[in-house]
Design brief:
The protein is α/β, with parallel strands linked by helices. Helices cover 42% and strands 13% of the residues. The protein folds into two domains: 14-240, TIM Barrel, CATH 3.20.20.60; 243-271, no CATH class. The protein has an eight-stranded parallel barrel with strand order 1-2-3-4-5-6-7-8, surrounded by six helices. Bound molecules: 3-methyl-2-oxobutanoic acid.
Length: 271
Amino acid sequence: MTGAPSRDIPRIRTRHLLDFKKQGQRFSMLTSYDQFSAQIFERAGIEMLLVGDSCGTTVLGHSSTVHTRHEDILLFTSAVTRAVKRPLVVADLAFGTYQTGTRDAMKHAVELMQAGAHAVKLEGGHQVIDQVKALVEAGIPVVGHLGFTPQSEHALGGFTVQGRDGAEADKMADDALALQEAGVFALVLEMVPADLAARITEVLHIPTIGIGAGPKCDGQVLVWQDMAGLSDFNGRFVRRFAQLGAELERAASEYHREVAEGTFPSEKESF
Ligand code: KIV
């Protein structure tokens, strides 16, 4: 089954994602950081929203998600979760809020959940297993993230596809199994060769969510500004489903011209 998921689920829960996988039903996730995009994506039927640390680069103008602060994600998480009822909202644990140990992971994840998140996401494999276990034991649903992990951009030597050679691929598959064992309910695979993502998707019973990981993942995720043509990011894995940047520029230019010409506001638009 690969059609549109049933819209009669009033609220997407982690168990629904496991059901989608069992039924071969693909699902979609988009990033969202504000009420307007969140409500539009909810109306479009998007099952999962990600208040990603990408808010640092897409909204706040940082050059890397390494600079995104926990406080920023908290603020955007509360805006998104206030705005929607149906999608499952995942919030990212920012760089430095969980790598330092289970105590920090717990503190920051609790704050994200208190801000309204339904789950948290963190990056890495074996090195974060203790953190994942602690969060899951505390009742916090966790999404894992393997492949290109942007918070390790500098250690990985830039934006590169991960798992191209045999040993790297085996390590990623091991990490995926270890994360599943530790209790993550879904796993993001970013910039991973399609055949490796397919192999990992096949062996896991939890769903994989791909971004630059080919068509065999159980779900897909994109940064919304990339998907809608608002950003100028041109990664190979991005498809632009709209040209919002061009449309917004056209609208702003028209507004600017009409103000200059004195045709806005009109009599009808005045009191
Ligand atoms: O922060 C983010 O947008 C992400 C996606 C790239 C998966 O982690």
